[in-house]
Amino acid sequence: MIAFKTEFLDETVEHYIHQRFVRLREEMTVGEAVRQLQQYDLSKQIMYLYVTDNEERLVGVVPVRRLLGGAADTRIGDVMIKKVVTVPSNATMEQAGAAMLKYKLLAVPVVDSQLRIIGVADLNLFTEDSLTLSRKPQVDSVFQLLGLHISLSRQASAWIMFRERFPWLLWNIASGILCAIIAGRYEMLIQEIVLLAMFMTVVLALGESVSMQAMTITLQRLSAGPFRWSAAMSSLRRELSAAGFLSAGCAVIIAAAAMVWKGHWTQAAAIGASVGLSILTACILGVLIPSLIRAMRIDPKVAAGPIVLACADICTLLYYFSVMQMVAGTK
Asked: Among 38, 199, 212, 303, which residue has the fewest nearby CB atoms (within 10 Å)?
């Protein structure tokens, strides 16, 4: 469990680093590294194998499995991963925790201005109980709690919040203007068929509601683990099955209401058909857009909502007017 106050996150990470890590030379062989590794007690601590050059600068990290799977005469420099996530010695605990959270690391090396490793900060700093690599559910829980504490501790200014959120709201502004243009394109149709104006609000509301429901469920599934397109497609199939029933039910009710109100069964059927199409499309958008944003390594919780709503509104209006225009036989 998390065992720190939010003030702890503002402290400098160099005050909490430890030296319980293995330092390897890139010119060493795998055999020499294994013999060196046998001198450490690895039973109760998080351990990464860091590689340094002759000037003590951090140049790579070696996963234990890659080390044990390599030939004894292979150079460490040939099996190491050269891209290493590090934090500077003047970083805060929040920044160190954010790095571990973002890359799902159990520990992160702390380096000085010359990229020399001076110690390691690990997740044990954020927990009361030490972690073991065999207890993945516990590790996943710690990552989730750590993310919660980091997000709550951020005291962002109004300008920063505006800068992060306003660009995505431009999607709503753009979609609103485009929807107005679409409605203007069908102005004569609206004047001819009064029923269009009467049901426009409810049709838009249904599309938006279904898109947000699908998006919310998708965001929950995306937060459960690493992103995979196969999982996204599986989620899409499940949501489409539910959307089929939703679209049929809503379409029948709206069409029946329009029929009872005005008595034009062809117009009522057109409104029902556009409702069904808009709900199915909204479901697809609610799943695919957050998934695509997540695949692009953008936070979907901030960006997905405005984009999904904007696309759902535009598609709904296009269906609504186009289907009615075909039924009415107007240009």
From this structure: 38
